[in-house]
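User: tokens in, sequence out, please.
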């Protein structure tokens, strides 16, 4: 069935629904107002600009204009990006992102870079603006990104491992340098812990961080994961096996073989370690003639079979 363009009466009803305190009703209104397009444009833009309207409704209106390929939407979002309400400013940034690379007068780009550099703005807004710039060619944004990224990097809490794990779950997109520092500090905490429970908790944090880095395709701390297998005397968290399967390279084969040999009593875990090593060999397209493969097969017969 063809979608009928909304009448003025329909638009009024949807605008009323957009003010609903029920999230699912607002979301339904957003979807239908996007379909309404030009018929709803002026009313939605007025809603975005009305600072007396509650922030949830203005955010919903900004979500509607994300679908508008209209300079008026860009202008409204530029104004909203300066709003003191964090949720409104961040919703405005979502509207501006597609305009950054195609805005002829560079007004969207100037707005977003201005947010990044403005030390008076909330850190969440500045980080969102910095992330928006990541879609542009590096030579255009690298100086600004490098000068501001470290300043905006969220600091993980390291009072205890459980708190740090929770922080990591909500900050998987933190700068790679921050994640690397988290790993380094967790490694020190694990080394200095006096009780097995504490050491195990810091070990689990390190494993979680390696899984996050692997999902992002980063080998920045692969040496640490390799060392953990090298020194393993008991089965390691499965996150480490996932990381090895994803980003491990041929330099990891001997460490995996050592862990496989050292933990002979856990057959299932040994099989997972061997499977990870075989996956690395396959991904790296290494044949039996490769020096690393020959060396491992010679020292640990059966490991790569």
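Assistant: Sequence out:
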């Amino acid at each position: 069935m063809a979608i009928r363009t909304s009448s003025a009466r329909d638009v009024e009803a949807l605008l009323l629904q957009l003010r609903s305190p029920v999230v699912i009703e607002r979301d339904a209104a957003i979807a239908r107002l996007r379909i309404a397009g030009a018929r709803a444009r002026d009313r939605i833009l007025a809603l975005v600009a009305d600072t007396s309207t509650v922030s949830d409704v203005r955010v919903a209106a900004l979500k509607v204009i994300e679908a508008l390929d209209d300079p008026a939407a860009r202008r409204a979002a530029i104004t909203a990006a300066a709003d003191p309400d964090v949720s409104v400013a961040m919703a405005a940034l979502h509207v501006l992102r597609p305009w950054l690379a195609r805005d002829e007068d560079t007004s969207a780009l100037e707005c977003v870079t201005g947010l990044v550099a403005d030390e008076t703005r909330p850190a969440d807004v500045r980080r969102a603006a910095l992330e928006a710039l990541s879609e542009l060619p590096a030579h255009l944004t690298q100086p600004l990104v490098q000068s501001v990224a470290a300043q905006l990097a969220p600091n993980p809490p390291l009072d205890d491992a459980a708190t740090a794990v929770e922080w990591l779950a909500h900050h998987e997109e933190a700068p790679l340098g921050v994640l690397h520092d988290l790993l380094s500090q967790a490694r020190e905490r694990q080394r200095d812990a006096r009780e097995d429970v504490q050491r195990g908790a810091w070990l689990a944090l390190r494993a979680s961080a390696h899984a996050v880095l692997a999902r992002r395709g980063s080998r920045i701390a692969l040496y640490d994961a390799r060392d953990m297998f090298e020194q393993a005397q008991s089965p390691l968290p499965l996150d480490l096996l996932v990381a090895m399967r994803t980003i491990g390279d041929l330099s990891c084969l001997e460490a995996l073989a050592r862990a496989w040999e050292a933990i002979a009593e856990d057959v299932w875990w040994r099989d997972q370690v061997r499977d990870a090593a075989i996956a690395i060999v396959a991904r790296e397209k290494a044949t039996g003639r490769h020096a690393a493969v020959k060396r491992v097969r010679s020292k640990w017969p059966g490991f790569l079979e």
